[in-house]
Amino acid sequence: xxxxxxxxxxxxxxxxxxxxxxxxxxxxxxxxxxxxxxxxxxxxxxxxxxxxxxxxxxxxxxxxxxxxxxxxxxxxxxxxxxxxxxxxxxxxxxxxxxxxxxxxxxxxxxxxxxxxxxxxxxxxxxxxxxxxxxxxxxxxxxxxxxxxxxxxxxxxxxxxxxxxxxxxxxxxxxxxxxxxxxxxxxxxxxxxxxxxxxxxxxxxxxxxxxxxxxxxxxxxxxxxxxxxxxxxxxxxxxxxxxxxxxxxxxxxxxxxxxxxxxxxxxxxxxxxxxxxxxxxxxxxxxxxxxxxxxxxxxxxxxxxxxxxxxxxxxxxxxxxxxxxxxxxxxxxxxxxxxxxxxxxxxxxxxxxxxxxxxxxxxxxxxxxxxxxxxxxxxxxxxxxxxxxxxx
Length: 391
Hints:
Elements: H1 2-46, E1 84-101, E2 103-105, H2 107-113, E3 130-149, E4 152-170, E5 177-188, E6 191-201, E7 205-215, E8 223-227, E9 233-237, E10 249-261, E11 264-276, E12 282-283, E13 287-299, E14 302-313, E15 317-318, E16 337-349, E17 358-390
Antiparallel strand pairs: 1-2, 1-3, 1-17, 3-4, 4-5, 4-6, 6-7, 7-10, 8-9, 10-11, 11-13, 12-15, 13-14, 14-16, 16-17
């Protein structure tokens, strides 16, 4: 138990250091942008007399930082005919500790109270003997958008994912910890193709349909070595959370609304995820994701946002016969649940020179409510950094 709390404290300290680093980095970026804007203004003043020959920066239409939603929302905006946009997102997710329903559980509580669904198979104990304690995920997402017409914008998203999960293994009976181990996976994730179809736009309110597909390009057969309760190292197919793709063709229907007045803007979105068929004997649970946000534009080049998001995910349907073990992540019933998060973020929009129409974005969240089909790991923080360029 003492080791568990020490690890939790170390995890908290790492998060604090990371946040301090991010804040210092963001302040540095803001400082550089302010210097560039001031430099641009000086350049415009020097060349006032040549305004008929050179288009000064203060005659350009400002690029509104709030014309795009928070970076954690995808498919929130459309483009005019002929416009392109390229984007990159880096997302970091940290999970520590476990929860069943609304209640937090220690590893010792899990092994003493949770039956092993594979008991009866040779070598499988009656209760769980391996418990995940920490997990991190890094995603590099590359996106492109193109509008062949004013009423249709096409969007493509691909990603590269790295996952790491730390575990503790207990002996075959009792509560003695015999060691820890990490499992890791990395590779290409699923590819998403979406069409955004405009329904209504009067300049103040905008409404469009999201019609997407997720293609099963990510692997769901990743393997790694684990520390078994008998003290041996065994190479196994890793449980569902460590796989890189869903394994199925997924339909992603949704609807997005945005509005704005003066320096305030707002929006809402609902996206569903419905699995078609199964792969390796199972399909991940369907998802429902809803979000709403409000933002304020302090200047054309910067806005801050606050967002609420709610997600519901069902349990896994079926089972992969190659995923077997005395660990909660191997049980299809220990997946999904209901989560409510509060997000904070900002968008920066370049106004002149080489930075014009480039955007730097940031968003982070804190959990407000978690009711998980457990026991399973709980997400503590998600941080997203992004770059976007439209032309």
